[in-house]
Amino acid sequence: MILQLKRIFERIGDQMDICGEIPLEELRDVSGCESFVTPVSLKGRAVNRAGMVSLDYTAGVTVRHLCDRCLDEFDREYSFDFSHILSRDESSLNDEDVYCAGGALDMNELAISDLLVEFPTKVVCREDCKGLCPVCGCNLNRETCDCGEAM
């Protein structure tokens, strides 16, 4: 989704609502997005406040994970809020600003890069996950073993 923001950059007080999604077909080719099981939903607003354009949006997606304790597959829904300052002047960018060449912004690219840095590095299927037996490897969430008693 390419947002044409020229009008917003030029008129103080102007705004644009953002509502859409990034389809799964587009996400399949992006490294780190192979485990997405739903399209990424996007909802937000770009606003010119006193000559500065800000973008606030929410991105939501469901991701299939492999539990780091028991190795079971599970799906988890995520919803993250993001804020950015947009600029069409490349020379005045801060580290956090997003450059909009020609007043346009590739919203999909921005949302995907924002999402990928927010996901946890370790995930468990549930807080009380018991994991795998270190001796026999059985999933302790579903079965019990005598390995612990033998040690």
Task: Give me a quick take on this structure.
With 151 residues, this protein is α+β, with helices and mostly antiparallel strands.
Order of helices and strands: EHEHEEEEEHH
Tally of discrete structural domains: 1
Report the oligomer: single chain
Whole-number mean pLDDT: 87
Give the N-terminus to C-terminus distance in angstroms. Answer: 59 Å
User: Which percent band covers the strand fraction?
Assistant: 35-45%
Uncertain stretches? none
* Helix and strand composition category: alpha+beta
**What general form does the structure show?**
elongated
Give the helix proportion (percent range). Answer: 10-25%
Largest beta sheet: what is the strand line-up? 2-3-4-5-6
Describe the biggest sheet? 5 strands, mixed
Radius of gyration: 21 Å
Give me the number of helical elements.
4
Number of strands: 7
Overview of this protein structure:
The protein is α+β, with helices and mostly antiparallel strands. It has one domain. Helices cover 17% and strands 37% of the residues. Strands 2-3-4-5-6 form a five-stranded mixed β-sheet. A two-stranded antiparallel sheet has the order 1-7. The longest helix has 12 residues, at 107-118. The protein is elongated. The termini are far apart. The relative contact order is 0.18. The mean pLDDT is 87.
Based on the model shown, name its key terms.
151 residues, alpha+beta, 5-stranded mixed β-sheet, 37% strand, elongated
List the helices and strands and how they pair.
Blueprint: E1 2-4, H1 6-10, E2 15-22, H2 24-27, E3 40-49, E4 52-66, E5 73-87, E6 98-99, E7 104-106, H3 107-118, H4 147-150
Parallel strand pairs: 5-6
Antiparallel strand pairs: 1-7, 2-3, 3-4, 4-5
